[in-house]
Design brief:
Layout: H1 6-20, H2 28-39, H3 43-51, H4 54-63, H5 71-88, H6 97-116, H7 124-144, H8 150-157, H9 161-171, H10 189-192, H11 202-216, H12 222-232, H13 242-249, H14 253-278
Length: 279
């Protein structure tokens, strides 16, 4: 895998995020047809299925930043998991592909983290438990057409609820809603719905955050979108202070903060809804 640094890294990631914006999830009926063709060796169908879910992989990768691997590596590993899922997914059950694939995506990222970093030390027995749970979860999600509950996973793995919960919690990203992404404290997890400490490659992470906001501004009323644009410097790369934004709209600093927080809440709620629909 290419090793991107500095400006090249930011530009490469920004280009990738812009490029995959054109791909959207396939309708269920079309998806089923595409999967059948892909399983028969149709390379165009396989490419169509994979590209339709690239944005979902990026979203999942964003949850696992700050754990020892750069964002682009996480995305690459997630894409490998996505491709593996295409090899075993059964469309005849009538369920959405991503419901099944998400387990392959997350496990691929976790496997890479466990093999390539010591940033987060997880007991070997919990890694083994997680792998076993993920295998069962993939089968159950394909059977049920939804994500299995903790109790269902425990019953089907012959583990206790507590053991399943411990293994799953160990594999989940550690997030803090109030932690700072940047040293100056201008952006926190609650502002960007990403991770809690400055990543190894801040330039890549910054590009990801800004692109994530740009991709979703159209969901907001025009005024809220413009305030976020100015505050984070999405188009100009020159973030404005609350006071500066307030002067632009002839409102107080506190009012700008309220509007900004409301806009972020809207975006977070919308993304949660999208994740639920995708799964």
């Amino acid at each position: 895998m290419a090793n991107f640094n500095g400006k090249e890294s930011r530009e490469s990631m920004d280009l990738y995020l812009r490029d995959i914006r054109k791909y959207t999830p396939l309708p269920r009926e079309e998806e089923a047809q595409v999967v059948v063709k892909a399983r028969k060796g149709d390379k165009q169908a396989l490419a169509k299925l994979i590209t339709a879910n690239l944005r979902f992989v990026v979203r999942v990768a964003g949850e696992y930043t700050n754990r020892g691997l750069p964002l682009q590596d996480l995305i690459a590993e997630g894409n490998i998991g996505l491709m593996r899922a295409t090899e075993t997914f059964d469309p005849s059950r009538g369920h959405k592909f991503i419901t099944y694939a998400v387990w392959w995506i997350r496990q691929a990222m976790m496997s890479a983290l466990n093999k390539q970093t010591r940033a987060v030390k997880i007991p070997v027995n919990q890694i083994d438990d997680h792998d076993a749970i993920a295998k069962v979860a993939r089968a159950m999600s394909q059977e049920l057409g939804r994500q299995p509950s903790l109790e269902e996973l425990a019953a089907n793995t012959q583990m206790s609820d507590k053991r399943v919960r411990r293994a799953m919690e160990a594999s989940q990203p550690s997030l803090s809603m109030d932690s700072q992404v940047y040293a100056d404290g201008t952006i926190s997890y609650s502002d960007t719905f990403v991770a809690d400490e400055p990543p190894a490659d801040e330039r890549v992470h910054e590009a990801y955050l800004k692109q994530l906001l740009r991709n979703n501004l159209e969901m907001l009323p025009e005024r809220e979108a413009k305030i976020l644009d100015l505050y984070y410097g999405l188009e100009t790369d020159e973030p404005k202070s609350l006071e500066q934004v307030g002067r632009r709209f002839s409102i107080s600093r506190e009012r700008v903060r309220q509007i900004k927080d409301r806009a972020i809440s809207r975006l977070k709620a919308n993304m949660v809804t999208q994740d639920a629909e995708a799964a």
